[in-house]
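new request in #modeling-help
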Amino acid sequence: MSAQFFLQQCLIGLTNGALIALVALGYTMVYGIIGLINFAHGDLIMLGACLALSIVGALGLAAVDPAVTWVAIAGLVLVCGLACGSLNVAVDRIVYKPLRNAPKLAPLVSAIGVSFIFMNIGLFWLGSADRSFPELLPSDNVLPDDWGLQFTQKDRLVVLIVVPLMVALSILVRWTKLGKAMRAVSQDPTAAALVGVDVDRVIAATFFIGGFLGGAASVVYSLYINTIGFQMGFQNGLYAFTAAVLGGIGSIPGAVLGGVVIGLVRALASAYVGERWTGAIVFAILIVILVFRPEGLLGRRVREKV
Amino acid sequence: MLEVRDLEAGYGPIRALDGVSIEIGEGETVAIIGANGAGKTTLLMAISGVVPTRRGSVTFRGQPLTGLPTHAIAKLGVGHAPEGRRIFPRLSVRENLQLGGFTQTNRAAVARDIDEACAIFPVLGERMSQMGGTLSGGEQQMLALARALVGRPKLLLLDEPSLGLAPLIVQKIFEVIGSLSKRGIAVVLVEQNARAALKLADRGYVLETGRITLSGSGKELSGDRRVREAYLGEG
């Protein structure tokens, strides 16, 4: 149990955590803007992985020259991102929008329904058995050998895709007109409409961005784990949703922090305690944190102000 | 410039407005007074398209507003500083003001309008990077008013701008409202503070349980016996 071993687990945890965070952003953004826990988000990512697998198969991307692999990956992220973003907008338009003024439970149950529909589409697309995703990247170490740490090309891929996306998202939310409109709508949709913000368009944009990040996550996941299946959305969605709640649902930095914390806890728990305890430990920590900070790590304490 | 004809609106089974007709001319300041629950806020919300209308029409500069979404009405030049101020509490004062200029396409013009708003309310200029929710009630009201002004409205709907504020701040707010007509902005002022509102307004309407029961110039209404008894605390 050397320091090196510990560092290695942290590295694994951070990489996994980044991926969880990317998915958690989709949950937290939609929750932030319309207060809906989008249970279908994990399954949206599963469909993104299906699409990625079909594209890789159809274009024979597994056999391309290593020099163009990165171009192929960037293309996959873009295509799957656009597809998942558009699908997310379509679902909002067809399913959630008509329920905008209904009690909160109605869109929530509808989201569970959408999750099942997506899962059935995935079942039809992939079949019931898990499918292996072609190895587009080799697993060789990119760190110098004498460091004694493993950080493979795949790990690097996660960082290279997730970090720029998160930076882009923060810039968008913080500085652009759309970002300000998104924050305004999440705080007071009526007041936002009164200053001229088209609330429905802002909500659609939020669904698109959350879906785009999910689509990007589906590609990263497929290339990183190399196994996909129609049920993958459930477990991954659950961890990501947990990350969003842990960080404070509705908070974008919270989702990132929650993802990293859960990634680290998972990696350390499986290394030091045992793989089979991982889930129990993650959720035990979640419960403890929520007992003391129900609003999550970076969440806002909900206070009624008169 | 604004013509409301026989307007009926409400929430579920409740009919909050029952055939209201009012008119506002270019650059005119019109007060609407009435007791709690008379339908004053609903009237403004119906003009802005937040509360759907069931019957009747709203026309702004010859264009029907009925059925238009709220953001489109705002874009036509109808500003609205709603009841309870409703500033964005977790956006900075600057961001709140920038959102006021959301419908403007010229960023430099918005920046100029923000500077101008800060000249009217210097305290906002000092609090630019503070979160809206950390401001005092009076400052929040100034922010709500400034936010609406940055949108360059031709008509401004003001809902209880003096509610819960210290007398000195009320005076300041009313001073600013009084100066709006010089800038060519028409104002619909909904107020509990009937005395101050009627003093300021060119004309006024009395709204009682969803109907207009009296109308006239500010002076006429302040002199009316029924108004004095019911709304000015005399009698």
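bot summary: The beta strands of chain A are 131-132, 227-228.
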